[in-house]
Records
---
Amino acid sequence: MLFRSLALTLALTAALAAMTAAGSAFAQSNLRIGLAEDPDVLDPTLARTYVGRIVFASICDKLFDIDENLKVVPQLALSHETSADGKEVTIKLRPNVKFQDGEAFDAAAAKYSLDRHLNMKGSFRKPEIGSIDKVEVVDPLTIKLVLKEPFSPLLAQLTDRAGMMVSPKAAEAAGDKFGLHPVCAGPYKFVERVQQGRIVVEKFADYWNRDQVFIDRITYLPIVDTTVRLANLKSGGIDLTERILATDIPAVRADPKLRLSNSVSLAWFGLMINQDNGPKSENPLGKDPRVRKAFELALDRDAINQVVFSGEFVPGNQWVSPQSPYYQKDFPVPKRDLAKARALMKEAGITGKLAIDYMVNNAPEARAVAEVVQSMVAEAGFDLRIRVVEVATALKAGEAGDFQLYGLTWSGRSDPDGNSVIYQTCGAPQNMAKYCDKDVDAWHQEARAATELEARKAIYAKITERFLDKGWIFYLYHPQNLVTHTARLEGYRPIADGIVRVVGLKLK
């Protein structure tokens, strides 16, 4: 009897323990975020995708951030001071900050991260902060950025991946494999990633701003099909999706269980022409400005907006939206002129249909835009052959020059420099067409050195005139940030970059 009683006691104890564990697990909050694509590498130095920036917002804090008014605000930094000649920026760092491996964040760590962005092979951050000549440690919580020349967009660049701080210990140990298990100083630490399946992060107990972190775990779920993503939101399978179709706006607004937040994005969508990157550039579209002009004159940006986006997006022809103070009103969106387009094709000696390989990301709206563009330019003598590929594959193909025309979205930056230089200057890593104009390069440097808005705008006018005429991107529109979430989620802040900032979010 004694043994039986003891066995029963042990069984009850085990059952109670299991129930307690289950209750604890149930009590843990899990925010499920639907992503439009699977991010590329989770290394802030090497990453390029917009959805990757959304994931980074939970893992990797930055020196600075932007607020709802696009004002630069401190994050891991406390303050900054720029010298009178504009060539030195001294940054005071936040004390008592730890990386997710327990290592201290200090001036030496900040220097390491910035040096890594500047010097690591394959870095996409180098063009963004290439004006930095060296980083000096002033004291344990102060760094000085010594610039080659004044660089007005610097702080804006440090509000994104170029300002993300990584653990030197973890980065040194992992090398170029750091993206498999990133270690930063953000509110959540990386747990696991299943390619095309999920990315899981959990609350970092020693986060410097932990009192404002209310959700225990975040699961990012790449769901390419927007309709499926919205259906998951409605059914409770996810709690937030970072993009919906413009055509779904009325249905979302009519659903009392959902909330919609929209704002004009900093992003642009453009059609990129391969001008000088390998054999696929050797075609009339890539080499003949008359053919490129004919192509653009066959486009109707307003119609694209109406057909694909129900008129909710903003047609544009520049790398900043018409709402930007840097928008050049002297270069308005060109109107469709099919007769002139056909005349230019005839002048260029194009008879019959000109076949063009059009590479497009595997996203519903990107495919829809491709089909509308295909129909429009067909009337001018172009035979667009749409090739749908995954985002990561498209980026690799772009680098290799395996495209004639490429539909690409750039997620946008608060300073116009971040929307243009990496695509427009000679040798820039995302200049996949190998476009090169020394004048444009020089003007960009002038704009970087200028500090007054009107002076910078005057320089951008010259870039705009030259690039819209000779460049390799037809800018088509600026999207709306259409973030939708369950009514149970509180604290979401809409900011023009569209990034989901997880600090302050609560699930009721």
Note: The chain has 17 helices and 23 strands.
---
Amino acid sequence: MAETVNSFKLFGFEISRAKDNKSIKSVVPPRDDDGAGYVTATTPGYGGYGGGHYGTYMNMEGDDSKDNAQLILKYRGSAMHPEADAAIEDIVNEAITASDTKPCVMVNSDNVKVSSSIKKQIAEEFDNIYNMLNFKELGHDIFRRWYVDGRLYHHLIVDETNPTAGIQEIRYIDAMKIRKVKQIKKETDKETGAKIVKKVDEFYIYQEKPGSQASAVRMSADSISYITSGLLDENRRKIVSYLHKALKPITQLRMMEDSLVIYRLARAPERRMFYIDVGNLPRGKAEQYMKDIMAKYRNKLVYDAKTGEIRDDRKHMSMLEDFWLPRREGGRGTEISTLPGGENLGQIEDIIYFQKRLYRSLNVPMNRLEQEQQFSLGRATEISRDELKFQKFIDRLRNRFSMLFYEILKKQLILKNIITEEDWNSWKHDLNVDYLRDNHFSELKEAELLREKVQTLDQISNYVGEYFSKEWVQKNVLLFSDDEINQMNKDITAAQADAEPDQGDLQ
């Protein structure tokens, strides 16, 4: 899809940044693995810098998907399949746990080395973002859109006359109507003559009607929140959804179910075979005689499920009709026999196979396919390995989805002059987003792990101080970190001091 868009002033706000004075030369543009399309500014006369217009060619490969819109429609259509929808709901319900008393997600800034006042402001702004997204009611839908589409866009609306007031509203953008573009500005190196990447500008192209060049609007990168699945195709050029590897199993399952229905309809009923003795009648008279017999004995009364009436459908031929075969003189005369219906119609092993293959492609445990099976609250050792793998998969999804909150929170804090971009880059990895977890599974796992540690500690307690040090036991058996060990020792010392009787009381 080739497209040309005017290079006017970008729509939306931009955050002012300090100029980077680093002089790093490269002929290769930076790669962020975000699926953005690269365009090159080639306006002559100004060192290769672009102006006026630019052109880009977006080609989405694979199957019949020609562009992003068609690929996303394919994902959404596949997600509506009943088995795929059930698997996706299991994933979303595990990732986003709803609660009437607690928020679904919370920010954790304990490890961030800033003042308590800034931590309080971070928590307040996170709550504002949580409310602007209406995440308590729409968190499930937001996560599902991101999971199915493989990307998620939001427009951050700011009062440009008063940017320090921060983000005023967050609006969802359909992924089919917007895409990210990176414009490469190059200049010729005087020493080598190579085209050196001078600058890479990022912006978004919004189209109310995809494919219409007249409706294209360039939007600034700061005014858009954009997160992806993190998955790329084999060429590492295109963002794909988590449903991408399940497209083939979904198609195969749908085809198998349709063929099964057709086979049931065609082979389930018994049909009769009429052998009509036409004697030595000529061909024309024999055919007419056959038609008269067929019209006389044919049963074409059908039941109309919409109206509840019995109606005659003699003008239509059916694949379930009886067979009428002529028999010449010398045969056994007119005969009626019964053709039995199909056997083994209840076997659906092939359907179950493709259902399991679909669940396997989506990383959902097989036991969740049988809905009648209940989740056992026994020992953690009884939890299947698939459930543990599934929980790790959910944790990876949560970590990736947390980019939504990081992106918006960063821009909100910078706009309100709470922090600078340099501050954010220095401690962004210490900031965490905690998700509300399923109480049953989490408590079960933590309790069982603690039980195993205590049992091991009890078995080696007689050897502590002789063969094992207390610190070694804390690190290798209880798996405490250095900070936890220090804090635990302080708490134990304080508790012992409080328990000792005061000397004044003894006198």
Note: The two ends are 93 Å apart (CA to CA).
---
Amino acid sequence: MNQNKLSFESENLQVDWIGFNIQGLINRKQVEQIANYLFRIFGFNSTLIKRINGKWKSESLNYDKLNKFHVSFRHHEYDPEAKSFWVGTKIYFSGKNAAQIYKGIRAQKFDWNIFDLTKTSLARFDLCYFRETKPTEQKGDLELFMEESCQKIRAKSKRRHASWCGNSKGLLMKIGSRLSSNHYRVYEKNHGLEFELELKNQLVKSFQKLLVDNRIKEFEHDLSKHFYKVSLNSFTVNSCYTDWLVNCVRKTVEKQTLDSFLITDYLENSNVKSFAEKEYLFRFFQFLTFIRRFKGVKQYNGDQVYYFITFPVSDFLQFISVPDAARKRQYQLKKILNFLLSLQKLDPIVEIFSDASFRSSVIFPYLAVVKEGKSWVAKISISQRLYSYSYPFFLPKEFLRYKDKYEMEVKLKIIQSLSVSSLEKNFYVEEFLNQFSIPNKKRTQIKKLIIELFDQLKSHKLIETEFGIVRKNGLSITVKQLTPLLLTKSKNIFFHEILYSSF
């Protein structure tokens, strides 16, 4: 399956400012032509701002009380006394006005010929991400996040400015000067936190050609990547306020070959108790990993997009390493056939996934398993959202298959512990081991398997090498190597995900 490019919509990024500079344009009639176009085609009222007797004064160019949007034109003329040497007109769309005009640009309804492109430059472009406040956040968390982020910046560069303060509207953090190419602001707004990046100067001009050539997909992909790169270099990621950033990094980093990895999504609400539910969930992980090997045929059902794939059921059996013994294989084949047919009734199982992609509309609108000759063949339609989905977690090949129920239980529990938004993970080892009424020899085997799997996570550089251990007596220690005896005495094992970036 192909991964989609980043887009403003997929990343929930909003356009908050668009500014253009037109060198040498001070002719009022030419300005009015642009204003009239924006008024007629997009419903923008407009204002012309000029400097008269040392003061900026504005006048209306176009106005209709029914119009909801506004654009400003600002004349700049040669004025040595005011140290104003640039001559031309600046056009800017702010807030909702920027979002509206960009909507027209994105739909390729904007006629760039209204500008003299030889003299026009993209002067400013603001992108922002809004993160809603969550009930789990504590008083003082935001102050700590801002202070740690500022410390991170100061430690990396003495020249890059970073500060935070409080005002009547709430807390505000500023990164970089207003004159810099990247000026970042983070501030409280309407029950949430706004992350706003202001791009200017030669930096924003480097994106101009993509915009005016209507190469919107490339423009949004490149600008989104830049937004995340600057964000990652600016903020601490060990905070609840950067969960959105961590999520993006996880989904965009290049992964190893899909054939050798088990994929999964966030499992914040992974409340599965019975063995049958656990087995079904693990099989679902295997199936999601398996079908990503196929290139689907694009289909349409009304305004919904799906991808159609076919595969021999025996290929899936081989993928999950079902034994070749005829009797065993027939039993497993029957189980797999029932599993495939059940995929159209996923509501109970998908509730454990945090992402809405697994809960929206119908994931598999068409599914049939038919006999062709001596072989069973599966024919499946997959919703576009799931087909193109970027999974945040890839587990090593050692997690892909299991030999018995105990191995499945161990692997699933580690998967559940790992597949959460926080970089710090918690494996409740005492609670996990206490669920088994088994001989000590078998219990020791399970402990050794836990250690082996954590070692695999370390060898693949998916987690840090150190573990935080909370013992049953309440004492805490830090170790680099787990042992069966240590697991016996432990209540919790804390470990940390290593976050990689492709930006």
Note: The first strand starts at residue 13 and ends at 23.
---
Amino acid sequence: MSGHQLTTLVKQPESKFKNMAIKSSIHIKPCRVTSSGAHNRRTAEYMRNIGKSQIYIVPELTAGNEQWINPCFGNPDLQAHYDYIKRMVKEKTGRAMQEKERERKGKNGKIVKVAGCSPIREGVLLIRPDTTLADVKKFGEECQRRWGITPLQIFLHKDEGHWLNGQPEAGDRESFQVGEKWFKPNYHAHIVFDWMNHDTGKSRKLNEEDMTEMQSLASDILLMERGQSKSVTGKEHLERNDFIIEKQKEEMKRLDATRQYREHQLEMANQKMQEAENITLSLIKEVHQKEQQSENLDRAISEKRSKLNREKGSELLGAAVNWATGKSKAMKNEIEDLRREIVTHEETIERLQCKIQTMQNDHHRERMELEAKHLSELNRREAAHTEETTRLKNRILWQNHIIGCLSFLLLKTSDIFRKAVHGIIRLARDYYKPRFDTEQVSDIKSALNLFGDDKQSHRAAGDFLYITATQKGKLDNREQIKARREVDNVVEGQYDQQQKRGFSMRR
């Protein structure tokens, strides 16, 4: 898209960056190495998958995004680095890295849950519209100096936000127009950290005070007002889609407040109309009284004319008639003034009624549009979630089917594979036997060599043996944990080391 086209699509107010009061904030969470890169890099497949609605991304603004990859990182693939960390932990500690949540018995005898290791974590950092990549790099370098967490990747996103329902509020200097709609940006950066101590093979430990200091550091380096901590606000960090929904709820609250104000205006207009109607009724009553007085006066004139004509002659009659006639004209002029005032009030009432009807129609239309949009968004998210869940379930079913077929084939055709699987099942079910014996280790190693002679092939074969044993032996949770641990020990050579040290494999 050309620069001229972008200018017509995106209309940002001038010099708005100077007066924006964005508060600093950073949220750290475990990084999903399989999906983080697609979102951060705005890959073509990712942009297709989020759909035509583009609920939170403006593609015309994506050109303003920036990224940085640590030159010491080597391979930019996060999955490759994650696998490297697993090997490093195994070499440094002698134990496989605990990736999943597990349960253990505490000193008090109660079962406690222990979180799995998160060697790669991702921080979402709020930034200003004019924040540069160099600013965020400086923040990442200072984090590495203070806490030993190494920034691997940095991505600046200036194309995300949420759409407003109508015009922005009077004090909103952040929102701008994209075509015919108004867009409120959410400027932020993603920092992917290596959270491990590579000298010890252990994860870095940062407490609440460290996280508070990190937020203050972001405020100082990025020249932003410091945001309040979660301990003060009591608010939890919202994920991207939940944040969008929350903003839509806020917009609904704003519209509801507008509705209440308009209802107040409507009530006041109704009061004014009622007052005008009361005044009109009073004026009509007064006109009737004046007309009655005029009629009475005309009768009095007629009676006086007859009486004077009879009693005192034409001179007195003329004088009386002139007086009565003047009084009658004045009364009729007053009546005409009252009638003109009534017409004015009736016109005012008609204008108020039109205004009230217009306000009611606008309010009803806005409310229906908002409800329809909100319902559409909820339906879209529910459909997307259902589709993704179905896709994952089908994928898992297909994988299980493939594994089951391969397992069945190998169990039928390979004595070596079958002996290894049966050995794993027997050990898992034996409550008093903690490790494989020499014969079982030999059977498992023979099965591993069927798949290759390198470490990577042995790890894949070990996973396949464990899954096959779990399915065929219908192992429970305790048995699965035991089988998993001992198969990994065979694959990683722990049994070889024990034999060299003279430890017995039978206990």
Note: The first strand starts at residue 10 and ends at 11.
